[in-house]
Amino acid sequence: MKKKPIRAFLLPLTLMMLTGCGDSTVSEQPSAQSEATSVVSAADSQEELVTYKLTFKNETGIYMTGLKIRLLGGDQALEETTNRAGYVKFRVIKEDYRLEVENSKGYTFENLTFDKEALEQTFTGVGKMLPFAETLADGSVSAGSGINDFTVKTGKNVDGELVETENTLSELLKDHKAVYINLFATWCGPCKMEFPYLNDFYNAHNDDVAFLVLSAYLVDSTYYGTRDTAEKVASYRDTNNLDFEIGMDTVNLNGAISLEAYPTSILINQDGKIVKTEVGAMTTADAVNGFFDGYYD
C-alpha cells in the first residue's frame, strides 16, 4: 500500500525540543553521574557534600526537558541537562552559586537566584505558553503554536458501567514525550479504518505517547444522526476492540484548530507546542509510525 504523506511543521528555533543528556564536567575533570547528578569529587574538598535538586517548569506547570543548566561558583563549573521530569541534580559543597540556562527555548527565567539552604528549588520560565482554559477559542491553535492547557475526560466500559478518567494536558506531558490528539466521529468511515493501526501503535508505545481520542461530533444532524455522547463512544470502543480510552471534545479543540475533516490528528511535544497535524486517515503502519517519528523508542 502506498505510504500516506505526513506533513511535519517546524517549530521556531528558540522553541525546538532538545533531547539527550550531555556530559558534565568539573574543572575539566571527569564527573560521576547517578540519576543525572553532577558530583564534585570528595578528593577536591574536605567539606561535606550536599545534593541540590533544581526543577524547571513553564508558567502553566509543564516540566521543561532538555534545558542545559550550569552551576557556577568559585573554581567549579558544573553542567547538566534537565530530564523528562524537568530537573537536574548537583552534588556539591554547600555554598553560594550562580545559575545559567543555556537554551531557554524562548522562555525567560526572571529569578534564577540560588539558595544554598534549600536542597530542592523550583524555577519558572515565562514565555509563550497559554494558561489553562476550560474552552479553547475558535481558530486559536495551529501547527507551530502553543496550546492552552486543558482537561478532558476519556472513558471505557467496565462490567457494563462507564468509567471515566480525567486527563490534563500538562500532567500527561510530565510522563510522556508527546500527547497525541485524534478528533473523530463514530459515523466516520475513514476514522474506523485508521483505528486498528493507531491501536497497534498505542499498545507498543503508550509509555512514550499519551493518547487523547475524542469525538468532535457534538450536534445532531439530519444526515449523520444523533450526536455522540460519552456512553456512545465507550460502546464504539468496545465494538471496535480498541485499547485506548475514548472521550468527548468538551473543550472545543475542533473549533480551536478550525477542524476541516474527520479524522484529524494533532501531536503536542513536551513544551506544549503543536509539532504535527494530519487531516485524513492514516491507513498503514508506516504512515502511523512516520507521524510519530522522533517521539517513541
Layout of SSEs?
Layout: E1 25-26, E2 29-30, E3 37-39, E4 49-58, E5 68-73, E6 76-81, E7 87-93, E8 98-101, E9 108-109, E10 120-126, E11 151-158, E12 161-168, H1 169-175, E13 178-184, H2 189-205, E14 209-215, H3 230-239, E15 246-248, H4 253-256, E16 264-269, E17 274-279, H5 285-291
Parallel strand pairs: 3-7, 4-10, 13-14, 14-15
Antiparallel strand pairs: 1-2, 4-7, 5-6, 5-8, 9-10, 11-12, 11-15, 13-16, 16-17
Question: What does this entry look like structurally?
Answer:
With 297 residues, the chain is α+β, with helices and mostly antiparallel strands. It contains 5 helices and 17 strands. Strand 14 (209-215), helix 3 and strand 15 (246-248) form a beta-alpha-beta unit. The longest helix has 17 residues, at 189-205. Mean pLDDT is 80; it is low at 1-34 and 128-132.
Structural features:
297 residues, Glutaredoxin, Immunoglobulin-like, alpha+beta, seven-stranded mixed β-sheet, 2 domains, five-stranded mixed β-sheet
